[in-house]
Design goal:
Layout (H helix, E strand, L loop, with lengths): L3 E7 L2 E7 L5 H8 L18 E4 L2 E4 L12 E3 L12 H8 L9 H14 L5 H8 L9 H22 L1
Parallel strand pairs: 1-5
Antiparallel strand pairs: 1-2, 3-4, 3-5
Helix pairs in contact: 2-5, 3-5, 4-5
The structure holds FE2/S2 (inorganic) cluster (2 copies).
Length: 163
């Protein structure tokens, strides 16, 4: 089957991509746009490393076809901040040493970002429930949860300013 062109918004920029019918969103982001912050671990929806945000929802990009992203707004970890302008979650992860190898980190950051945009007052139990779908094999979840709790005030302030 011939490749198709899809049109989507990635990290605030309009993008057009030529993709095969079987190309996953993860592979399109990594291979076509070189957004390699989206990591691939299990490639079958279990580890959460590939999580990106699609129209506000945390989505496993290894389970979504690129064709299904037509017209959507996608945010990857690169859209949460950069080395010179870290976002509130990235700052909190650095402060709390909430990563070691960093393989799981992009997926946890995007998952937590989607959560705090919707629920800036999420409590520890809710945060633990949400990040339980993201597997971290080396840090342990204490600093990760502490960092997400710490970032809540920035999201609450943002939500208050937008209200
Ligand atoms: Fe997508 Fe593991 S790579 S959930
Ligand atoms: Fe290594 Fe989470 S920091 S897997």
């Amino acid at each position: 089957m011939a490749p198709s062109t899809i049109h989507l918004t990635v990290n605030g920029s309009a993008r057009s991509l030529s993709v095969d019918a079987r190309t996953t969103l993860a592979d399109a982001l990594r291979g076509k746009l070189r957004l390699t912050g989206t990591h691939l671990g299990c490639e079958h929806g279990v580890c959460g490393a590939c999580t990106v945000i699609v129209d506000g929802a945390a989505v496993r990009s290894c389970l979504m076809l690129a064709l299904q992203a037509e017209g959507y707004e996608v945010t990857t970890v690169e859209g949460l901040g950069d080395a010179d302008h870290l976002g509130p979650l990235q700052l909190a992860f650095r402060k709390h040493h909430a990563l070691q190898c960093g393989f799981c980190t992009p997926g946890i950051l995007t998952t937590a970002h989607a959560l705090l945009l919707e629920e800036p007052d999420a409590d520890e139990a809710r945060i633990r429930e949400v990040v339980s779908g993201n597997l971290c094999r080396c840090t342990g979840y204490l600093p990760i949860v502490a960092a997400i709790l710490d970032a809540r005030s920035a999201y609450a302030a943002q939500a208050g300013a937008a209200a």
